[in-house]
Design brief:
Layout (H helix, E strand, L loop, with lengths): L1 H28 L16 H12 L4 E8 L5 E8 L3 E7 L7 H13 L5 H10 E6 L4 H6 L20 H13 L3 E7 L5 E2 L8 E4 L11 H20 L4 E3 L9 H7 L3 E7 L9 H20 L8 H4 L4 E2 L2 E13 L2 E15 L6 E11 L5 E7 L4 E3 L2 E9 L8 H6 L2 E8 L6 E2 L4 E3 L18 E5 L2 E7 L2 E4 L10 E4 L2
Parallel strand pairs: 3-4, 3-5, 5-9, 7-8, 11-14, 16-17, 17-19, 19-23
Antiparallel strand pairs: 1-2, 2-4, 6-10, 7-9, 11-12, 12-13, 15-20, 18-23, 20-21, 21-22
Helix pairs in contact: 1-7, 1-9, 3-9, 4-9, 7-9
Length: 488
Amino acid sequence: MKQFFTFIIAFITINVVGQNSEITDQLYETYDNYKEPSLVHRRIKHNDIQPLITRLKNNSKYTVQKVGASIEGRDLTLISVGTGKTNVFLWSQMHGDEPTATQAIFDIFNFLDSPEFLSEKESILSNLTLHFLPMLNPDGAEQFTRRNALGIDMNRDALRLQSPEGQTLKRVRDSLNADFGFNLHDQSIYYNAERTDKMATISYLAPAYNYEKDINDVRANAMKVIVFMNSIIQKYAPGQVGRYNDDFEPRAFGDNIQKWGTSAILIESGGYQNDTEKQEIRKLNYVSILSAIYTIANGDYKNIPIDGYEKIPENDRKLFDLKLSGLTYKLLDKDYIIDLGINLLEVDNANHTNFYNIGKIIDQGDLSTFYGYDTFDASGYTILEGKVYPKTIKSEKDLAKLDIYSLLQTGYTYLRVEELQVGKKEVSVPIHLISPNYKVLNLAMNVGGDATFLLQKNGKIDYAVINGFLIDLNTKKSNFKNALIYKR
């Protein structure tokens, strides 16, 4: 009997998904036609989206209104479109450094303004009224930081409502009495789908509205839409979907918005292979959000059983940028076998428009239950300390005269330079630059330590790890971005 009901649930879900699969495929295939070309990097600012909002303001299809202001005085704008009785409210960038869905929202506007998909858009806009608040924390976006100018996590301000941004979110939700709410975020790229090596590219949550985690119609509708969205993402990023723990957090907006009667759907954009700027994940947001809006408009979500929600694997956090397995590490004349987990931390430039990486050892020991975006079985390789090249060059211009890969193969990972550019902290060649008097410390493999060393086997150096980037010295193959400049 249990197998029969499982079959019926699967049949209903597949049937609903199948009815919407054609538009989903078309949305995915035609995405480049609607991608907003002025937004191509994660570190977008309030000023970057103002011309796009002005363009919408001049379009009679939209209602564009200022609904509040940030602590530092930046406008909070609500953009509405459609004539339907069902209100769908989407807000993004509650955390200033989480802009992936913000970009997707402007892609959605381009889609809505296009001459294609007329029947589908008629269904959406006649049955729904869509309301977008695309950048809720513009002050945080300016610094590319999570918190607002008050220094608080806005997603823990639903009770006190101390931030004007949080007050705006509550006021808009209440004025709309929204039927559905899409709470759009980014999460760490180091989340994986539980017990797999798959990154959690998209993660979902239908937040609980009480400690008992009860499921009423409001929360159940959110679960149904999430089951549908999961089926969409599985087509393009199979196995790369996670589900957040649903423990009730009484201070959080998502939990309270569910409690206030809006079916709240949390979407978190995580990591994707070779997608540093999250442009592929932006595309997945665009496709899955539009598909969800369409299924809400035509009511198909109502037929989806919620059982599929619990089948989405929970989020775990067991990913590294680079995982090295089976390294031999010599300490006090004794050999030990260790694994290393290395992450490439981002350090912003002064105006928060770009970044460079600093590679750090995050964990070491037995990491057999962990995974990596890049992995390397280093069995038989011994960790070797890099040396300082004995000659000093005049300036960075002289780097072109050196064969950097030959230096690495002979054990050199640091190069002295007489004249280093003031304020510059990184270099695009795979060797660290140091000032004439800088003293390089002896190699010590410690959690939190710098990730620069060589890998040697049978007396030959085959690989270098420079600032956390693994470089094959025989083929010169790597995803190297930058080494560092050290001065004293």
